[in-house]
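Lab notebook, bench 4. We co-purified these components, and the gel suggests they stay together. Before we commit to crystallization screens, I want a quick structural picture of the whole thing.
Request: model the full complex, all chains together.
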Amino acid sequence: MDNIDYQRPASVDEAIRLAQQPGTAFIGGGTNLLDLMKGGVARPMRLLDVTRLPGREIAQLPDGGLRLGAGVPNSDAANHRLVRERYPLLARALLSGASAQLRNMATVGGNLMQRTRCSYFTDTGFGACNKREPGSGCAAIGGFNRMHAILGTSEACIATHPSDMCVALAALRATVRVRGAQGERTIPMTEFHRLPAARPELDTVLQPGELILSVDLPASRFAQRHAYLKLRDRASYAFALVSVAAALDERDGAVADAALALGGVAHKPWRVLAAEQALVGRPLSDASVADATRLLLDGARGFGHNDFKIELARRAVARALAQAHAGTA
Amino acid sequence: MSDPLDDADRAARHPHPALPAPTRRGFLKSAGAATGALATALPGTPAAAAPTTAAPPLPPPPRPAPPPRRITLTVNGARHELLVEARVTLLDALREHLALYGTKKGCDRGQCGACTVLVDGRRINSCLTLAVMQEDRAITTIEGLGRPGALHAMQAAFIEHDAFQCGYCTPGQICSAVALVQEARDGQASAVTADLRQPAALDDDEIRERMSGNLCRCGAYPNIVKAVRVVAAIRPIA
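Here is the predicted assembly.
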């Protein structure tokens, strides 16, 4: 690993001030950043340790929502009483990710910022990776791309975002509160991560020197009927090939509101409002599920090894919605 | 650095006291170096045949080193002052600075769990955190759980139920298992817990899921699960 400087800012303001220097990175749990640094993929000159800043709390919001501090470890978020009671979909997504050790280390903010596990990105032995070296090409297109994206891809990049937590947060309409030198702003979860387009080196809309303060969840009616379905190559401790966050608010036999997002298929959690709307206003049925799935997967395209993901996603959506409807998850 | 655990044994058997005694650690290092040289020299190996479409850029020159810093780590109840660079992981600090070789370096990338230790009672991968980040925290390694003659219940159960073969992953497995039992008693759920609102009973499925961050290439899993199940069933003292 490269030589680095290490600082432990005493306040959020100091952290943001110090982060304005080039070559600076925040470190939370470190589970992804240190891994990337060991591989020479991330090469910050200075780490700002934000694990001792305020922001490790989970607090109720006046509107009935919940605020997850950016520094809350994934395991604490998954096991918090209010998360389990009000947002069990989020708890399920968190528990399906990584291992117990990694969940103890990884933070809410760090989970948002984790980078793709595309093997051409994480291995500097490959010269072509537009995300790692802009302009160098994409070895995954035409390469071994079984894990790669089927939606929202570009000619420059077909990487996926690896998070489970973010898929549930997108479905639950969370927002991300950040602060930088220009002040504070709130970004909808679905707009926090970018599609690769011509700039795959940019994973998110976060500006340099901006720090995530919290993830805020609105009051939710999705606590009763929900499912996080994660399909992967082994039963545990593996990234998703396809995952589905599904939740239904059903009243008088009809769907009053629906939440639906996919993981493992795109550069960001994949949520399509029209797909959710297709479920609303009628009872859940094969027809409504088919309509929603068609809208959700509109434009899906395989790259050879990952062609199977299109059919897998179609079936996974149907199963997750059935599980949510049955209320068994 | 010599391995204090090996010293007495080695001195007793080494026939040429004037020469440096061979050490297991030294042998592994030189064998590893030889294997590495062989791999790069052989044509047709995956490394040589890697289908890169463009030559990788040359690595940038090394940066000037920020000075090492003096930190204090509390390990197994004892405070230690160390002089470490910021880039030193907790795992390397434990092994290379404090000579606590019980914590193993497997993949060094957070994928195998061999480096699992407890920090303030929580299990973590010590390869993916920096030593400087763990000041003022209580670190427990396998050496701190028990010792010969006074084993931790989990250590005894691993022996009793033959829960290892080569033993390399075992310290991480045991640290992980000790934390697992506490997490379950604290009511923490796992991905296979049927009802998030009820405390989970530690059946074999629960144990396997909760131990999934610790790989065992000898495949001792059935007996690891058995050892954990037996300890989890012991009524807590308090």
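Chain A has a mean pLDDT of 97. Worth comparing against the SEC data before the next meeting. The longest helix of chain A spans residues 308-326.
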